[in-house]
TrEMBL record:
Residues 56-71, 691-705 have a biased composition (Polar residues). This is ATP-dependent RNA helicase. Residues 94-105 have a biased composition (Low complexity). It is an enzyme of class 3 (hydrolase).
Amino acid sequence: MSDDDGMLLNFSTIEDGGSGFKPSSAKVTGGRWRDRRKMKMMMEGRPKKKRKLKQNAATGTADVENNSGSDPNMDAATNEKESTSEKAVEFKNSGKSNNVNSSNNQVVSSLFTSNREISTAVNTNERDESAEQAPSNAPLSGDSFEALGIKESLLTHLKEKMKIQKPTSIQKLVLSHLLSQWKGQDDDLFINAQTGSGKTLAYLLPIFAKILGMKIRVDRKSGCFALIVAPTRELASQIYSVALTISNCCHYLVPCLLIGGERKKSEKARLRKGCNFIVGTPGRVLDHLQNTKVVREQFSQSLRYVVLDEGDKLMELGFEETITQILSILHDFQLDNSIFPPLPSRIVHVLCSATLKGGVKKLGDVALQNYKLLSNRQMEGSSTASEVPDQLLQKIAIVPPKLRLVTLAGSLDEITKSHKGSESTRRTMVFLSCSDSVEFHYETFSSSDEHHRNLVGDTVRLLTKGNKILPSFTGNSDPGTIFYKLHGSLSQPMRSATLDHFSREDEASRGKHKIMFCTDVASRGLDLPHVGTVIEIDPPFSTEDHLHRIGRTARAGQSGEALLFLLPGEEEGYLNCIKGFHPKGWKLLKFDKDIIQPVFQSMSVSKSDREGDSKKQEDSWDSNVTTWHLNVERRVLEDQILKGIAVKGFTSHIRAYATHIGAEKQYFNVKFLHLGHLAKSFALRERPKSLAQQSSRDGAKQTVQSKKDTAKMDTKDKMLKMAKLAVKQSASEFNY
Ligand SMILES: Nc1ncnc2c1ncn2[C@@H]1O[C@H](COP(=O)(O)OP(=O)(O)OP(=O)(O)O)[C@@H](O)[C@H]1O
């Protein structure tokens, strides 16, 4: 990554600090600095901020007052100081916070004060909820696979064993193209279709149909007919398992999986036995092409199809060079068209992507020749498929940083409650910016005291009776919830086992709410069954990621909903950026009235250090929110391991935030973040300054000079420096 790429633009400061406030250009000189500052503020039209801390004698709680004209965009330094002293007051008095009543105009907790104003009052992209939205990625009722050329054993297998009755619109387009009798079957294809529209079967089915339709005896020794390359191991494994399922109707055709993290020796052994389909990740495929003679032998005469799945992700992860090398090796093979005459006379390249942005077009130029663009929206008169499925209900909440954790708890609790009593399995995915943040959220929600049981290593946890982490969990009822964590720092077998458990539909899963905290490693192409809700607590790193993340729900015509959290301020501008993806609109939620209040007003949350108290007091919803948050903070304070995880989660999150693409830095810029408030959403009471020092102690070795430099910087600059360093070292560290 070069120093001047789009990422680094993310660090540039804008003149007004992003607040919309334009400083006066006039210079004030002479006199005392206080007078100069006062004069400058007057010239800039900024009112002098009065702040008073009042100790409430009756309750022992603090009332933090700001003058009503306070600037919600006050600069970070002022904000930070304020936040710290608020915290000091709050926690000094936290023992009595349950007594506080919001009805007498007292501010119950600093959770609800000093938050930046939310400016999005009107939903400019309102979804018409009264209108029935027909699924846009569902199978087409009026078409059939027979009519498209799928025959005999493959057709029976598809309908009876795989329960796939009708093609989706993209399958119809691709099948009619690749199975056509005319010369066009040799054209390269660019498949652009919505998430969950069945792209995998769209390219696998015609390849299988073509091989089976040759009426030439083939077996695993006949050579490899298709190479499918996918950007992540999870996706490659998934495509491999679809190929394996199809091959159940023709056992003599054998697929093979080549992915990093697996033993190369055993892969070589499998390749030596022979295979007809190779599915793999780019690095490992290239490695075998360069170093395993038998692979080249397998491809040399039979290879007719090269599929690049999730093309935009392949580019984003920097695989262009690897793909170019793979293609150049493959193109050197001399095909013998006399052995399999019914197959295309050249290698047909297929590129798949749900989006057309990013480098995917460039990959098209590299990999495809005279390609044909097939898009499932073409049928409905739209040019591309970069839109969310029509039936997906998108919700958006603008959530102040301090309230992110508790709003997430409210959202998860609501889903859990609404699922109670159901026989089916409910699945929710929560997307976070980096592995460390996944660890923090997983630990926070899944392990309260001893009330949990590890099911798969420590990545899958079943909550047991007595767990009270979500407001509706009571001590004597079964929470019916399983938590999962998935990110790239876990070993490959662990990642596979976790996904396998999450996807399982067995007796033990019935009626359970499965909640997975994950990074973008789970955003691409993964086909997990019946994901009801996707929550993006951290904003996506690009609009394409947004589309792919929420595309884990509402697949193949099913219903689903997604919830995106944005911070008040610049992030609200992101709504305009994603509007084009949501032609059916979205629902704008108020984080307090619509999410946390309904959840926290219906139950009493008791303080974790007063569990034994027999008399429960009916508290207002905001007091319950405060108590819930204090309980988590107390756990972090008392448990040094959890505290370490929280600190790492926070610092890595800030670093990850700095990697938002340059084009979107106007919405996501570290400079806009209020670090003190954000720390609160990691249940941290310490000021970011001490966190930055702590993390640099824990982290990379610093030179004496860089230590001196760091000491001179303020907290925000330190975070920026850490972010730049981290990006230089490895972008994948926090993305995956
Ligand atoms: N014709 C069909 N009828 C019913 N279900 C189907 C059909 N085709 C595919 N599916 C199912 O739809 C789901 C989504 O398929 P697939 O993973 O191929 O989608 P995709 O378009 O590749 O999505 P993404 O862009 O997210 O990778 C799978 O569970 C698959 O079994």
